[in-house]
Amino acid sequence: MKLLQEAIEKRGEIINDSILKVDSFLNHQIDCALMEQIGIEFANYFKDKHFTKIVTIESSGIAPAVFAGLKMNLPVIFLKKSEPSTMKDPVYTEAFSFTKNRKYTLCMERSCLNPEDSVLFIDDFLANGQAFISAEDLVHQCNAKINGIGIVIEKSFQKGRQLIEEKGYDIYSLARIQEMKDNKIVWAK
Ligand code: G4P
Ligand code: NA
Ligand code: NA
Predict the structure, then answer these.
(1) Coiled-coil regions in this chain (predicted)?
(2) What is the ipTM of this complex?
(3) Any binding-site annotation on 155?
(4) Does ligand 1 have an atom closer than 6 angstroms to the CB of 160?
């Protein structure tokens, strides 16, 4: 997605060979016009597929997921990193972040998904795919299925893409970074 690649090049900051900072439009401040285009892009790519719900992870997955939900006319569930006391019957899973080198728990209300649900999973970054694996676990605990994956920024040099492809999922990443070197981004084809 050209507009997103330009935003990453102009407004992103390469922290090191493996971390890209995009706080000015995605992870802290949100560029709503860009998010709207991101929602349209996901809706176009997945137009022939059947979904009943979008699932994402708080907090940075919410903006792209909500804009996609608006365009696709689907509700958005965001998986939570702490359990609210108001949850009645939650499902839990452990997740591990290589980027942050720590474990965390993800949870959701079991009744949010049922066996008839066909889920589009959306997230801001794909690195090693561990967040996706944990989300997949929660969706499966509810006996629902995942029918597509939409990623805003994929770091193709990390393991996530391959892991998801090996599971046979339809994955669409809007910007695919092959390499970050000498303060330059090399895009994957
Ligand atoms: P993985 O799921 O693909 O294995 O990734 P990992 O656990 O390593 O990612 C942990 C967190 O770091 C996630 O955000 C993810 O979006 C973010 N992340 C991964 N790589 C990058 C990067 O290069 N740049 C930035 N800015 N973030 C990255 P999170 O902890 O869930 O936080 P939030 O932003 O959703 O609140
Ligand atoms: Na993030
Ligand atoms: Na995320």
Answers:
(1) none
(2) 0.94
(3) yes
(4) yes
